[in-house]
Amino acid sequence: MMKRNFSPETSDRFEYLQALVTEFQDSDSEEAKEQVLANLANFAYDPKNTEYLRQLQVTDLFLDMLTEKNENFIEFGMGGLCNLSMDPDCRDLILDSDGISLITNCLSNQREETVLSAITTLMNLVTPASQSQLTEPGILQCMLRFSLAESPRLHNLAAVFLQDCCTKDQVRQAEQQMQGQQMAVGIPLPKD
Amino acid sequence: MNSCFEMPPKRKRVSANMAANVNSKPGCWKVPEVYKHHEQHNACFSRPKYRDGRRAKAVKVYTINLESRYVMIQGVPAIGVMEELIQLCALYGTVEEYRPLDEYPAEEFTEVYLVKFQKLTSARAAKRNMDEKSFYGGVLHVCYVPEYESVEDTKLKLQDRRSYVLKVARSRAKERVADAVHMESTSSESVPTSSRVFATNNPIFNSDKTGETSSFSHCSGFPLLPLPPQEYFHQDYRGNEPTEDQMGTLHDAVPPDVKQQKVQNFSSFSKDPNSEKKLASNPDSSVKLVPRTAHLEKNKRRKMEEATKQPVPDSGEPSLIGPKLPEPHKLDMNDQSLNTTVNLIRGTMKQVTSVPDLKPAEKKVKPRRRI
């Protein structure tokens, strides 16, 4: 056996995260799964953990959650992706796993928190290669509608997306395409 | 500025629960609304010991969207202690603005304050240290209020966060390379490839070798110990980066003492009695010990998507993303046969007018998770 002088801190952290992933996979209790998922998503906030979470394929675990029926699973999974996608390596993994379509589906979620996480994640996913997919007219029109929302958090975030992630020409195009279509009035926006 | 952001606030309220608080004043100091994220969630007491933190915490996920340099402090006794409150806040960082939120629904004999810190890290430290603490006989509830941010605030917050994460990732990559080189030169008998793997697995361990990162790893080591408030002040005045690691947000997931609970944790999770040894000695192989089904699922998902791929709706009519309009009201014609006819016509109309949708590709049966 090779000698490996791990710092105890490092291996503990990895083992702990692995134990969480294992419990998530093994548990049959929805409640326990929700707790563990929330733990993992919160761990994803600390960039020191991203390397381990990436090795444990937690990005895929979070992406899997987006098609669950349990709304908490979706919210926590989306929150975890929002946290992880700040890291360039995790961002690339999400893009490789075709995460964009799964995440854009969350834009129509009823929970505001889920929608906000989805918008921030989409912003994090912008790279020269993914830019065209992330600024397709459908998404821009959705952001335009969100920018009219009453909720300050939602319209702020949508405004940031429209300012940072696409050109003014693209916004203008999307606005023109929206003319004649249904207007924002009457569209159910995510509940608080 | 783009024209779409300057739309007059003539938005129509949709849901009944939102209709109560009509508020069209622009700017950040407007009449406050009560949002769900202001509520204190019920703490969760059903966690197994190994992931039960020191403090009682609710099951909640924090993201950058929830955090803000604007905080709201509820439960301040209405005995004229605003100055004392702001002095307390200033211990955690520069306070840019503050004001009482008289319009916000408060409990009897208490006041609510809005405090705008200069830095997000200060707000974080203040929340962590002041929330649920007693103050002149009252118990404070401190929460972030990102709805007071301007578009610019939100933009800067996200930029700061992204550059911080990028910085950590970069220094991690740098140390990984440095360590791989170091390992190869020192351990000539070891297999070079695996030493490289080892290096990639230990960014924290590696990061301790350079002064740059150790400046903040000294206090953010794992397991985290509760720090006396003084250390936070110290950190806050040094700059905003270091405190990133000690967000109150992560706290809830941090185990109180990993070493102590390792035994429990593994006795309940690993069927293999040797696994603890294996895990401790060889983390890269332990990744393989627990096969993640996600990869299989991902491949399956991809295959199924390819099989059921719809013609791309690019032909000038992009599919609608985001919330959809409610279904039109179903008319009741008071007659079975008339209703059937109406439904038939409705169905046909829908088929004729519907835009090819993306949905079917994604809405298929989820592959079963197998362990």
UniProtKB/TrEMBL annotation, chain A:
UniProt protein name: Armadillo repeat containing 7
Query: Which Gene3D superfamilies would you find in this protein's record?
Result: Leucine-rich Repeat Variant
Identify the species of origin: Oryzias latipes
Q: Which InterPro entries does this one have?
A: ARM-like (IPR011989), ARM-type_fold (IPR016024), Armadillo (IPR000225), ARMC7 (IPR042462)
Q: Which PANTHER family match?
A: ARMADILLO REPEAT-CONTAINING PROTEIN 7 (PTHR46263)
Automatic annotation (TrEMBL), chain B:
Region feature (Disordered) = 177-203, 230-252, 267-335
* Record GO biological process: mRNA processing; RNA splicing
Its keywords, alphabetically, are: mRNA processing, mRNA splicing, RNA-binding, Spliceosome
**SUPFAM superfamilies in the record:** RNA-binding domain, RBD
- What is one GO cellular-component annotation here? nucleoplasm
Q: Where is the composition biased (Low complexity)?
A: 184-195
Name the domain of life.
Answer: Eukaryota
Cite the InterPro entries for this sequence: RBD_domain_sf, RBM48, RBM48_RRM
Q: Is RNA-binding included in the keywords of this UniProt record?
A: yes
Q: Offer an example of a GO molecular function term for this protein.
A: RNA binding
UniProt key word RNA-binding: yes
**What family, per the record?**
Belongs to the RBM48 family.
Function per UniProt = As a component of the minor spliceosome, involved in the splicing of U12-type introns in pre-mRNAs.
Q: What is this protein called?
A: RNA-binding protein 48
- Organism field: Oryzias latipes (Japanese rice fish)
